[in-house]
Design a protein that fits this description.
Helix content is 0%, strand content 49%. By secondary structure, the chain is mainly β. The chain has a single domain (29-110), classed as Jelly Rolls (Sandwich). The strands form three sheets. The protein has a five-stranded antiparallel β-sheet with strand order 1-2-9-4-7, with no helix packed on it. A three-stranded antiparallel β-sheet has the order 6-5-8, with no helix packed on it. The chain has a two-stranded antiparallel ribbon with strand order 3-10.
Length: 111
């Protein structure tokens, strides 16, 4: 059993970006917060599938260069090798949960 609170972990950019809460042994995940104008960064995974559950805000997600609008409650499952990026092109903060499985921390390929 493992318990933690999100307040115990930092965001990559201080107050935005990814915040990893669980790192293995079988999956990893956490929150991603994007302020207005920020983006996650285009990348893909060779073996990992990644799921995004959008909680707050609106924006766009690009999967293999196809644009999809994001609204709270949307869920996107991204297959291995599918290039993806998230863009907050609004004036409010965007927040999502992300889940990556299996746990392969070196599997990310930046494009």
């Amino acid at each position: 059993m493992q318990k933690l609170n999100e307040k115990e972990k930092p965001f990559r950019k201080g107050d935005s970006g990814p915040k990893y809460l669980i790192n293995g042994p079988r999956w990893e995940g956490g929150f991603v917060v994007l302020k207005p104008g920020e983006q996650l960064g285009a990348h893909y995974h060779n073996e990992v599938e990644e799921t995004f559950i959008f909680l707050e805000g609106k924006g766009k997600i690009y999967i293999n260069d196809v644009e999809y609008q994001i609204e709270p409650g949307d869920v996107f499952r991204v297959e291995p090798k599918e290039k993806h990026n998230i863009l907050n092109d609004t004036e409010t903060t965007l927040k999502a949960v992300f889940i990556k499985c299996p746990y392969l921390p070196e599997d990310k390929v930046v494009v």
